[in-house]
Design goal:
The protein has about 80 residues and is mainly alpha-helical. Helix content is about 75%, strand content about 0%. It is built from 3 helices and no strands.
Length: about 80
């Protein structure tokens, strides 16, 4: 996971990956981990609670990232009109 974070940090510093898309990717990763942990609910009683907490964090990150990207695209000076 450290390597992925290093690559994402490098992409952010170069301007290839915006902060909004970083949040979207983080949200997708959290949703995937929530799914994996939720599927282990028959083995561990706390797994569903952890999966729900991660799913809430994933939704928050996705919403935050998409809002930042849509706000940024609507503020772009490239639009003609």
């Amino acid at each position: 996971m450290g390597r992925a974070r290093t690559v994402a940090r490098w992409l952010l510093s170069k301007g290839v990956l915006s902060a909004g898309w970083y949040s979207v990717l983080t949200g997708l990763a959290l949703a995937y981990v929530a799914y994996l942990i939720g599927s282990a609910s028959e083995d561990d009683a706390a797994a569903p609670l952890v999966a729900v907490a991660l799913a809430v964090a994933a939704i928050w990150q996705l919403e935050r990232g998409l809002r930042a990207e849509f706000r940024r695209s609507s503020d772009s000076p490239d639009e003609v009109g």
